[in-house]
Amino acid sequence: MVIHLIAAARPNFMKIAPLYHALGKEAWAHPVIVHTGQHYDLNMSDVFFRDFGLPEPDIHLNVGSGTHAEQTGKVMIAYEKVIMKEKPDLVIVVGDVNSTAAATLAAVKLGVKVAHLEAGLRSFDRTMPEEINRLVTDAIADILWTPSPDGDENLLKEGVSKDKIHRVGNIMIDSLVMMKDRIESETLFESLNVSKGGFGLVTLHRPANVDHPENLKKICEILLNIAAKLPIVFPVHPRTLKNLEKTKQMDSLQAEPNIMLMEPLSYVRFMNLVFNSKFLLTDSGGVQEETTYLGIPCLTLRPNTERPVTITQGTNSLCTTDDVEMMADEIVSGKYKKGTVPELWDGQTAARIVKNIVAMFH
Ligand code: UD1
């Protein structure tokens, strides 16, 4: 059974890895990695393949950056040709990036079965490109693998038939469990002059936060204020870097000795910092889940989240530029809430998916 795993952007690579390795152990499965090339930099793509012991992608579409329509269109055109030639039995798409929706559209129209891993998540905010990608993908995919009960409920409310929905758990936690020893033996944290639990870790890349000069300026002021109380480590995403440079904000961040700026990190190096941090300030999706699993406070600088269990059960809170400093103070003074780990966030999601494929196709 030929199974295409579609990988495109940084948050996808850690999701396909546990699945690729689990499928690789099955005699009936022939997993094939298709990299769309949406992310192409060494430290946005290649280092993740290395970290997770993934081989070079079997197929590379090399689409690169572009507007939403350009990126989506290029993936559809390139991937349609691949499907016609390779005739996969199943296409697995993950997450919510442009390539997720594009590959799904191309495959479904050629009658190839598509499974969406991380289905059913909804922010109910259609100004986010990811929300559009999630809606499109879930509306047309054949198999919907959800991470948590809210995913099932969202899909049922949208009229998706119950027999398409399978709750398998959170694949990001499989990646974390799989890499735990490597993360703990990584030395990046030790090489920085900070104590365990003595620094805040920042990641920001959402267009709503970093594409508007006014918002970005406000966020930089906040980082400078927090850095007056606690060191900040900030690996900077390419989109954010471009905007920080364009608006000259990079200079003020660089001038603050308590802010350590660095290039985007590999999975192992980033998670080594997460493990040792006091809290995260982020607008990422996956980081909200990883911190909930680890019990580390997470302040999410967004008006909504498609991952509500990280708030109701976990250590995540939404915040705004008006209250984030106050919330960081609460964390530092030990007043912040404690969380629990949601059900099926246990490192066994890839195994459940393999069983699910066997049940459906054999
Ligand atoms: C994309 C995803 C987002 C995900 C994020 C993780 C969509 C709509 N967005 O957003 O959901 O959370 O990836 O990083 O699919 N760039 C580089 N090198 C790279 C990749 C990008 O320099 O390897 C530059 C691009 O030229 C572009 C900017 O970074 O200017 C943004 O890249 P893009 O892939 O368009 O979107 P992301 O913001 O990364």
Structure notes:
There is one protein chain. This protein is an alpha/beta fold. The protein has two domains: 2-169 and 345-361, Glycogen Phosphorylase B (Rossmann fold), CATH 3.40.50.2000; 180-332, Rossmann fold (3-Layer(aba) Sandwich). It has helices at 10-24, 42-51, 68-86, 98-109, 129-140, 149-157, 171-185, 188-191, 207-210, 213-227, 238-246, 249-254, 267-276, 286-294, 309-312, 324-332, 349-361; strands spanning 2-7, 30-35, 59-60, 90-94, 113-117, 143-146, 165-167, 200-203, 232-235, 259-262, 279-282, 298-300, 316-318. α1 runs parallel beside α2 and α7 (171-185) packs across α13 (267-276). The model has no long low-confidence stretch (mean pLDDT 98). Residues 9-11, 38-41, 44-45, 65, 96-98, 129-130, 205, 237-239 line the site of uridine-diphosphate-N-acetylglucosamine. Uridine-diphosphate-N-acetylglucosamine (UD1) is lined by residues 9-11, 38-41, 44-45, 65, 96-98, 129-130, 205, 237-239.
